[in-house]
Amino acid sequence: MKREPMVFAVGGMLFGFVLGYMVANLGSGPADSARPAAAAPSLAGSADRARPPASPPGLDPNEFKALESLASREKGNVQVRVELGNLLMDNSRFEEAARFYREALALKPDQPDVRVDLGACLVNAGKAGEGLLEFEKTLQKDPTHKKALFNKGIALMETGRTQEAVAVWEGLLKRFPDDPQLQGLRKQIEQVRGAARRPS
Fold it and tell me: pTM for this one?
């Protein structure tokens, strides 16, 4: 969601749940207002994302070229950079997506959802430590940011800090006990605990 053997096993258990959660509609923000429904990566991404089809379409090269051309012409256009990041992230091109999210944040740093998407891209690209820093930056400003908390747990799992991940997720469930999008997390926590108790 590199790691100790137990963490690999836990990552496999979490994958299905994470895939479902990341497309959840977790609030809204201006960065996501124009975002179409699309495929999702393995971490919770932007808000206002509709559930993707079972077989997502590939990257539309014409759409990408048009957005890229607009970004090169309009150096201060934050939204087009966010849209490029979203498009690339939805197609699992995480390193490229991270570049555009960074550009958007350089122009307008106070975009918590974009920062969480950057962190998710970094974790998916094998840079869990860097992703964790982005989630922490978001949580410093908004300790209740659901996507940042959820993804922080995944980043902690990726770095082998299983108990810390469980603690983060338990705190998330206490804060949002009736959130239907988080109910599956309880089962995942029990599976993580069970894997930790089993002899290696």
Answer: 0.74
